[in-house]
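Sharing in case it's useful to others searching the archive later.

Someone asked me privately for the predicted structure of Phosphoglycolate phosphatase, so I'm posting the question and my answer publicly. Question first, with the sequence:
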Amino acid sequence: MTQFNNIKAIAFDLDGTLVDSVPDLAAATNATLVELSLPKTSEQQVRSWVGNGARVLMQRALQFAKPELALEQNKTQLEDMLATVMPRFMHHYGLHLEKHSNLYPNVFDTLTKLKQAGYKMAIVTNKPYQFTIPLLKSFAIDEFFEVVLGGDSLEKMKPDPLPLNHLLAHWQLTNEQLLMVGDSKNDILAAQAANVAAIGLTYGYNYGEHIGLSSPTAVCEDFAQVGELLLD
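And my answer, the predicted structure tokens:
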């Protein structure tokens, strides 16, 4: 497609794009809720909560287990609970990391082809950096990426354009030369704010919305189609 002819570098989201990590996130979320004597949630529910980083995931889980925490007058109580709970969630996620996650179909082969074609590649995820590297290594895809940005690597994360602007500056690229590939509206919004092209994937985590509603440059149902758009 002509809109991708100038692309030199690609920024990939991780969760819901390259790796289905929800089973591990759900296990860690439920282990944390059990510690608090709160009701557990379902893996399907966790799928609708991910995408804005670990803290927001746990905030949504707490508000699910204790609906009163969603009320404005209980905002301070919620913040106090999060301060206590987040270290426990991070502990449990570290224990469950890589245990149940899976690489999506055609990811490894497509990344191999893109690397061989000379594209620079980066990870731009809202997952904490300390968990991003081990997850990449566990699927032997870490060597594909020259830059890895976690949700805590910079002052702001997606949907803010800062991570993508950081890549543009780091690689000295024009806006027309960078592509964002992700499954969430946060990925598309970040790309639009940075004025770069975006491919939206339909199979990931996007709060129950079709990724096409966010108006990415192109929509793909299978990761292999990303390679087809760039290499054909």
